[in-house]
Amino acid sequence: MNDPLSETSLTIATVFGSVVLANTLGVSGLAAVAVAGLYFGNVTVKKEAIMSKNVRTFAFNFWEMIAFLASSAAFLYLGISMNLIDIVQHFPVIALSLIIIDSIVFLMDAFLVTSNSIIFTDSFSLSA
Q: What is the pLDDT of residues 104-122, one digit of tens each?
């Protein structure tokens, strides 16, 4: 077909159809969307005969934008629905947790680096 809008619309219909089918069967629509996405991403999209590179790029960019908007909406909802009084009451625990996590990340970076370079078999060296 090689039409980015039509083929991206087909991916949208696939997502919607998977939710409708899952709800009809009484199973999780979210799991059905995840399975449909995995199938589309790992089987359908990788075959050049099924989806051209131009369409693949367009669909990928479309779904990246949708994922960004959905994530933004979810965090916006969490921020609006959060109880600020509880956050203020638990601030010392939150701050302590952030300090502990930052310390662990710092220690992992400092002590787990064993070498300044990674040497590949093809005589290619990447300096850290």
A: 988 888 877 654 445 445 4
CA distance 21 to 54: 30
The number of distinct structural domains making up the chain is 2
Q: Does one domain contain both 43 and 105?
A: no
Cα–Cα distance, 67 to 63 (Å, whole number):
6
Give the span between the Cα atoms of 12 and 60, in whole angstroms.
Answer: 12
Verify that 43 and 103 share a domain, yes or no. no
Q: How does pLDDT run across 51-71, given as a tens digit for each residue? A: 788 888 898 899 899 999 999
Question: pTM value?
Answer: 0.59
- Same domain for 11 and 59, yes or no, is yes
Question: Which amino acid is it at 115?
Answer: S
